[in-house]
Amino acid sequence: MARLAAAGGCLMAALLGACAGPPPERQEIVRVEVAPAELAILPVEDRQRHPATQAEALREAIAAAAVERGFSPLGRGYVDRAEIDLDVPALGEAGVLRVRLLDWEPEAGPPARLRGRVHLSLYQQGELLADYQYRVDLRSDSLAMAADSAGQLTALRRRFAAELVGQLPPPPDLDAP
Hints:
This protein is of the alpha/beta class.
């Protein structure tokens, strides 16, 4: 009974933020089964302020992964010129994809490695459709070891982007009647 009371107390304290412990590896909220076909992919937000080229390269990899998954990303220039309020992200009927790198540690290799915590949110007309927070830890495999450091990191970014986009609800099946 004492254990149950202690566990209940810690659970209550955890809900109130008082229990110490490592953050969960993954948290997710998904409110839809199907995502909008068109995606406005916002510039990747990097809280650690790495060189902008890293965030831009990740954004490009995310757009390529979105196409592979069946989404239609809107043009980067169009999205960048649109005045999208980050408090209520909306751009017509398109989904708005926001990626924030909370911790981001790319390591050139060999082997190359990407580690960090990422927050991914998908909105449509200001409504949150899906929200994910999780840790990533990817290393280049033996096939990528032949590539130079930049090539290994590019391959890891692509793999990570595919994993990231794979977390989203799928786009509508356009072949369905």
